Amino acid sequence: xxxxxxxxxxxxxxxxxxxxxxxxxxxxxxxxxxxxxxxxxxxxxxxxxxxxxxxxxxxxxxxxxxxxxxxxxxxxxxxxxxxxxxxxxxxxxxxxxxxxxxxxxxxxxxxxxxxxxxxxxxxxxxxxxxxxxxxxxxx
Length: 139
Ligand code: CO
What we know:
The protein has 139 residues and is an alpha+beta fold. Helices cover 22% and strands 37% of the residues. The protein has 3 helices and 8 strands. An 8-stranded mixed sheet has the order 2-3-4-1-5-8-7-6. A hairpin with a 5-residue loop joins strand 6 (106-107) and strand 7 (113-117). The longest helix has 11 residues, at 15-25. The two termini are 19 Å apart.
């Protein structure tokens, strides 16, 4: 069950110019910043009320976000829905025949567990499900 939108992901070439817009221009608070080697990105989470914007800059051109930028330039990258139990959600999605990029959860930002659905199965929107780490759920 999707309980709410956790964040929207925005692909950028470099973090610092994007922070000038989102942190300084929009006056959003930086909640977290992390290099996620497993996903090949540097990520920054900014608070927007109970939700977040996630800025994603690729660590190299041959990463998924690097390829996205080469293909279509910076912009909206994905929408992430929060769930309480990602294992149960993945099982239900598989049983529903949903095409997944990740059959098993992998490590996301702030120790969360995440999985991506295939955009061809989700009307062209790259869709992430995220189970926050214990203690990070009430942000
Ligand atoms: Co995300």
